[in-house]
Automatic annotation (TrEMBL):
InterPro entries: Aminoacid_DH-like_N_sf, NAD(P)-bd_dom_sf, THF_DH/CycHdrlase, THF_DH/CycHdrlase_cat_dom, THF_DH/CycHdrlase_CS, THF_DH/CycHdrlase_NAD-bd_dom. This is Bifunctional protein FolD. The lineage of its organism: Bacteria, Pseudomonadati, Bacteroidota, Sphingobacteriia, Sphingobacteriales. Belongs to the tetrahydrofolate dehydrogenase/cyclohydrolase family. Residues 4-119 form the Tetrahydrofolate dehydrogenase/cyclohydrolase catalytic domain. The gene is folD. Keywords: Amino-acid biosynthesis, Histidine biosynthesis, Hydrolase, Methionine biosynthesis, Multifunctional enzyme, NADP, One-carbon metabolism, Oxidoreductase, Purine biosynthesis. Residues 138-288 form the Tetrahydrofolate dehydrogenase/cyclohydrolase NAD(P)-binding domain. Homodimer.
Length: 294
């Protein structure tokens, strides 16, 4: 078993981003700027946003975290997004999900100017991704593709099985793996909770991406010998053993599956760190105007 080491790869790519950010700042007279809106005080969301902000500082970006109480109205949130869309000093905008039930996440996603949509969730970016056109790619699948690229994992002609079809991970992942690109050119099976014979489907995968949200769901008996296994899951459980009071578990039973896999990502230390890299790369591209000229 070889480790797909998110710590190592993300540190290397962040060093490159830092240098590019410094050149941008020298030329533009300002830093690339990411704004993150956080509504409410969900523990997981707080941790993710704090980590995104910290990483922006690390690579020399400006970052602003706008926080709202859980009872902000949808209209107020949409008005703020409209304001940010018009602000030329802000390059990227993300609204942390999940949102409270009274706010429609689709309306929010579509309200963000697609040229600032560094999460890559806007239908324009998703459509352009499907057509292999320049766009912001959703951060988690983007980070996974960068990881596969870094380790030179062969994808062409391979059978990839994606478990989970969410708009932010599973679906875009399946599109990226199937595109005519490198990495890419896999034959992809996209599975979900209504898939019949899920174990047999997963067993056929040369590459397995698990994005389900269930602790240790994928076990050794479900994985082909020598498969490449990407664990997207972040399942938080309270724990007295850690300083934070939480322990993280993936969707893959690492202990068992790592004995059969040729390559595998750990949790933590795998996809989560690469997601941040995807977001930072998108923000830099937004600042430079390379995808959508300013
Ligand atoms: P969602 O809850 O939106 O989607 C889960 C998907 O898994 C759905 O498509 C669902 O199927 C499928 N699923 C659920 N149960 C089963 C089952 N028993 N068998 C087969 N499929 C099943 O989750 P997300 O995609 O947002 O996130 C998935 C995981 O990844 C979570 O743990 C999340 O925390 C983590 N995550 C990690 C990130 C990172 O940076 N590492 C970033 C984003 C998410 P159906 O559609 O039929 O309901």
């Amino acid at each position: 078993m070889n480790l797909l080491d998110g710590k190592l790869v993300s540190a290397k790519i962040k060093e490159d981003i830092k240098q590019e950010a410094a050149s941008f700042t020298a030329q533009a007279g300002r830093k690339p700027h990411l704004v993150a809106i956080l509504v409410g005080n969900d523990g997981g969301s707080e941790t993710y946003v704090a980590s995104k902000m910290r990483n922006c500082e690390l690579v020399g970006f400006e970052s602003t975290n706008i926080r709202y109480d859980v009872d902000i109205t949808e209209a107020e949130l949409l008005a703020k997004i409209g304001e940010i869309n018009e602000d030329p000093t802000i390059d990227g905008l993300i609204v942390q999900l999940p949102l409270p039930k009274h706010i429609d996440p689709d309306k929010v996603t579509e309200a963000i100017d697609y040229r600032k949509d560094v999460d890559g969730f806007h239908p324009i970016n998703l459509g352009r991704m499907q057509r292999n056109l320049p766009c912001f790619i959703p951060a988690t699948p983007y980070g996974i593709m960068l990881m596969l690229e870094h380790y030179g994992i062969e994808t062409s002609g391979k059978k990839a099985v994606v478990v989970g079809r969410s708009n932010i991970v599973g679906s875009p992942m399946s599109i990226l793996l199937a595109r005519n690109s490198t990495p890419g050119n896999c034959t992809v099976t996209l599975t979900h909770s209504r898939t019949a014979n899920l174990k047999e489907e997963i067993l056929a995968g040369d590459i397995v991406v698990a994005a389900i949200g269930r602790k240790n769901f994928v076990t050794a008996d479900m994985v082909k010998e020598g498969a490449v296994v990407i664990d997207v899951g972040i399942n938080r459980e309270e724990s007295a053993e850690t300083k934070s009071g939480f322990k993280l578990y993936g969707d893959v039973d690492f202990e068992g599956v790592s004995k059969k896999a040729s390559w595998i990502t750990p949790v933590p230390g795998g996809v989560g760190l690469m997601t941040i890299v995807g977001l930072l790369k998108n923000t830099l591209e937004a600042a430079k105007g390379t995808i959508y000229p300013k």
